[in-house]
Amino acid sequence: MIDVVPDINNNKQSNGLQESPQIIPQNLPPEPMNEARSENATKKHYYRIITPVVLLLLLITFLVFRTPIIDAFKGIGYNPTPDMLAVRDSLHLTTDGARIFNATRPLLASRDDFNMSCESHDEAVSVLGCYTNDRVYIYNVDDPSLPGIRESTAAHEFLHAVWTRLTGAEKADLVPALEEVYSKHSDELKETIESYPTEEKIGEIYVRSATQIADLPELLEAHYAKYFTDQDSIASFYASYIAPFNELKKQIAKLQTELETIEKEINSRTAALDERASKFDAAVAEFNACANKQGCFTSSYIFYTRRAELVAEQQAINAENNAINDLINKYNTKAETYNSSVLRSSELQSIINSNSPTTEIEEE
Description:
The protein is mainly alpha-helical. Helix 6 (149-165) packs across helix 9 and helix 7 packs across helix 8. It has a 3-stranded mixed sheet. The chain has helices at 32-64, 66-74, 82-90, 95-103, 111-118, 149-165, 168-184, 186-193, 198-212, 218-224, 231-291, 300-352; strands at residues 13-14, 17-18, 107-109, 129-132, 135-139. Helix content is 68%, strand content 4%. It is elongated, with a radius of gyration of 48 Å. It contains 12 helices and 5 strands.
């Protein structure tokens, strides 16, 4: 018997129609959903790589420019008074300089506020400004006889803020030039600098070099040019306000020397005149005694000659006495000028001394 193999094309029929065979596609592209999933995975992987790099770059940028960035934020909202604004404008600050200046939020302070902020309570010391807790306080000395005093003080304290922002390497680079300035201008700087602790001296030289000395080494001029567009004008503020003090100091010293010289001359000539007058008085007494004694003068010629000599001596003594009186008058006139100069010097010291009980400063 022969087995009949059924036809696979005929094993399923429906209503006489043959069902088409199922075609399975080969090597077709991935389904769209699978493609989207692949792209998202790639992006996520990319973000995982790039995000740490960006954060690292941002961190490095912040570390490098940390101080300028912080200063910029500190200066936000700083609104100086019109007087303080005028002081700031007069300093001719660069962009970097203005950023640091605003960050310290300088304040022109009245006497009580200044003494509290700067902890200034010593009447023997005149404190014009202070830099504390990254803030600048300036004693509001508003006196026309001391032009430039507020500007000079503002620049001085501002530079203390700059010095604290310099790196150790930057400071080290400036030290030789600063020491050169100190050596060259020791007569002007030494007395003040020596009053500071050792660790603060170089910083104080840094500040005073810019605010008091116009002729600086090129290295320092280039450095200060980062903060001031005209450093010579900064030094001129100090020269302007210190001039009355220096002039009075010179005048007082000169008058004191002259008074001492005149006094010595008066004393010397007075002593000599006293001795001369004593001898004259004795000679007159002797002459009168001889004139009253019969035959003491052997001739009228001798009598009149001796009398003429005494008269001439008396005239000379009177002339010397007048000369000494002229010296005394000269001494008294200079003494009045000397006392006026000392008084004016005391007045100026009182004006700049926030602890002076007689100080009268126009407050804001």
